[in-house]
Amino acid sequence: MKDQDNTKVGRRTLLTNLGVTAVAGLTAGAVAGSAQAAEQPSAGFQPARHEKDAWLGELPGSHRVFVDSSTLDGGANALRFASNIIKSHVDEYAGKASDYALVVCFRHGSVSYGFSDAIWAKYGTVLGRDMKTPSTSNPMNTASAANGQNSIPFMVENGIQFAICNRSTHGLAGRIAEATGIKADDAYAELVAGAIPNSHFVAAGVLAVTRAQEYHYSLLYSE
């Protein structure tokens, strides 16, 4: 009788152990399957590419940042933010400015900063109409308290690029035409020819913000 009882206990133990082993195997298989599935490339959304946006993907650098601005104050602060990124990367990460593909966008109210001193000398009252004291030169070409002692030349020296809103440029050309009597198309051509260095005219600043993110740029908005 004792031998039979021992046999029953042995069978129960064997079956129990087999059950645990089977469950453990299923669990491990499920986890491995989930991990494998997670490693597979997503079959979801893939953004379309357009020739007009190609420059965003061609900028060298191991980090990508797009600093957007739409007001005069925001445009000035955008230079401050861009500079802080570069200087912090150099100081704290032993990096260099060339590690960054960094774009500052001038659109809407900040678009005036996208043009040279020569344009400001000629049309400063229009470009700086929202300033307390309109300037005869691009205020961002000089380091000042407004831009955190940074400037457009400093940005250019460090390889930072600029996106200039084309729609806002057309609007600015229209205001120049109203103020001076010249044709809007002629004013627009002057503006394009007088753009700051490292600049790229984008169809619309708001559109460039979205396309930059499709190229994996981190987005900051400056105000």
Descriptive account of the structure:
It is a single chain. With 223 residues, this protein is of the alpha/beta class. The protein has a single domain, classed as DsrEFH-like (Hypothetical Protein Ychn, Chain: A), CATH 3.40.1260. Helices cover 52% and strands 13% of the residues. A five-stranded parallel sheet has the order 4-3-2-1-5. The chain is globular, with a radius of gyration of 30 Å. The model is unreliable at 5-41 (pLDDT under 50).
Total domain count: 1
Percent strand equals: 5-15%
How are strands sequenced across the largest beta sheet? 4-3-2-1-5
CATH C-level: Alpha Beta
Strands, count: 5
Alpha-beta content class: alpha/beta
How large is the radius of gyration? 30 Å
Report how far the terminal alpha carbons are from each other: 89 Å
**From the 3D coordinates, which CATH architecture would you assign?**
3-Layer(aba) Sandwich
Proportion of residues in helical segments = 40-55%
Mean pLDDT: 87
CATH H-level name... which superfamily?
DsrEFH-like
Shape: globular
Counting DSSP H or I runs of 4 or more residues, the number of helices is: 8
Q: How many strands, what sense, and barrel or not for the largest sheet? A: 5 strands, parallel
Uncertain residue segments: 5-41
The CATH topology turns out to be Hypothetical Protein Ychn, Chain: A
Q: What is the helix/strand order?
A: HHEHEHHEHHEHE
